[in-house]
TrEMBL record, chain A:
Domain of life: Bacteria
CDD domains from the UniProt entry: STAS_anti-anti-sigma_factors
Family, per entry: Belongs to the anti-sigma-factor antagonist family.
Domain (STAS) ranges: 21-110
InterPro entries in the cross-refs: Anti-sigma_ant, STAS_dom, STAS_dom_sf
Organism: Paramylibacter kogurei
Descriptive protein name: Anti-sigma factor antagonist
GO molecular function: anti-sigma factor antagonist activity
């Protein structure tokens, strides 16, 4: 499981550097994101631009992570590819998460030049 | 003078052991195979989602996580439909569940579902589902409409 972590102000952008988020990856994905939260991330944005495919186990892992972060921290998502977006929409989870078109949309105005 | 034989309909057949990694690899191969056929290309997304859910169910429920089970996947194309057959020799398939609605953001944060999306996705994206199990094996047949108007 490969991720990259970039800090923009108080927002932590975690990019999942895998092309599938599926049953084979779900547990490792949850563990990797949990580590970033335990290291102090209070406002996480998950960049899914590399993820071309996600199944229901992957979606379940994303929901579980949001619940792990709880209501006192923030978890948002950006850059859904078409198949991943379809899974979010069909299951109505697109209305549960705050989903941004791009990372630039998700981070503070004054830090956009840093991308 | 003999008429040229019609081109054979495309077929994708794989037999593999019940491991999640194998499911991922086979589905990547299927995506490549479908992408090469103009008629099937536009159905790659739906077929990938449906087969991922179906094969994961086999790994998790029919074989209960054991990596020793045999799975076969057949994908064939008829004039206007794509048929996928998934066969396993594990625990007897309990039957196709009744379609359910997914609840949205109206529920409590703690109650948001972390699972149970699988059959919903399968039923949302297929034209028809058949269970044709016998005494020795379970077989699920998943039909997708691929008439020319869709391609």
């Amino acid at each position: 499981m490969e991720i990259s972590v970039d800090q923009y102000g108080h927002k932590t952008v975690v990019k999942l550097r895998e092309n599938r988020l599926d049953a084979a990856m779900a547990v490792r994905f949850k563990d990797a994101l949990k580590t970033v939260v335990d290291d102090g991330a209070e406002f996480m944005i998950l960049d899914m631009s590399d993820v071309g495919f996600m199944d229901s186990s992957g979606l379940g892992a994303v929901v579980a992570h949001m619940k792990y972060m709880g209501t006192e921290r923030n978890f948002e998502i950006a850059n859904l590819t078409p198949t991943v977006e379809k899974v979010f929409k069909l299951t109505r989870m697109d209305s549960v998460f705050k989903i941004h078109k791009s990372i630039a949309d998700a981070i503070p105005e004054d830090l956009k030049n840093a991308i | 003078m003999n008429e040229p034989s019609p081109a054979p309909e495309p077929i994708f057949l794989r037999q593999f052991k019940s491991e999640q990694e194998n499911v991922s690899n086979i589905l990547s191969e299927l995506d490549l195979w479908m992408s090469g056929d103009a008629r099937l290309k536009s159905h790659c997304e739906d077929v990938a989602i449906v087969l991922a859910e179906t094969l994961n169910n086999v790994v998790e429920h029919a074989y209960k996580g054991s990596a020793k089970g045999d799975i076969s996947l057949f994908v064939g194309v008829d004039t206007d439909q794509l048929c996928c057959e998934v066969r396993d020799f594990g625990e007897k398939f309990p039957g196709i569940p009744h379609p359910q609605e997914m609840s949205g953001p109206e529920q409590n944060f703690e109650d948001l579902p972390e699972g149970g999306f699988g059959w919903f996705l399968i039923q949302s994206l297929t034209t028809k589902i058949e269970s044709v199990s016998d005494d020795d094996s379970n077989c699920i047949r998943l039909i997708f409409d691929c008439s020319p108007k869709d391609s």
